[in-house]
Fold:
Amino acid sequence: MYIFSATAKTRKAIDDFKADDKVPFIVYIDYKDLFGAEKLCQLYLLNEGFYEVKIEKRKMIPAEKLLPLIDKDKAIQEALETGYMVQMFDAH
Structure:
């Protein structure tokens, strides 16, 4: 599984963000390789109506470190069930 810290601009006002504001995200992608996971991260954010997606940080979580976290982290549980999980933050 890969975890990405990303920003993207919003096309319209959403929550506390105005149109064209940069919005911070953390994205969990359950995929085998980094390149594919990065592209999926970008596509999921584009599909939700954001643009200028920039991946700022990336981290792979190996399976042996992932197992103890599964019961404690709902984001990881959702990513394992659906293949991904996107979380938007209020601020950087």
Summary: Strands lie at 2-10, 22-29, 50-60, 84-88. The mean pLDDT is 92.
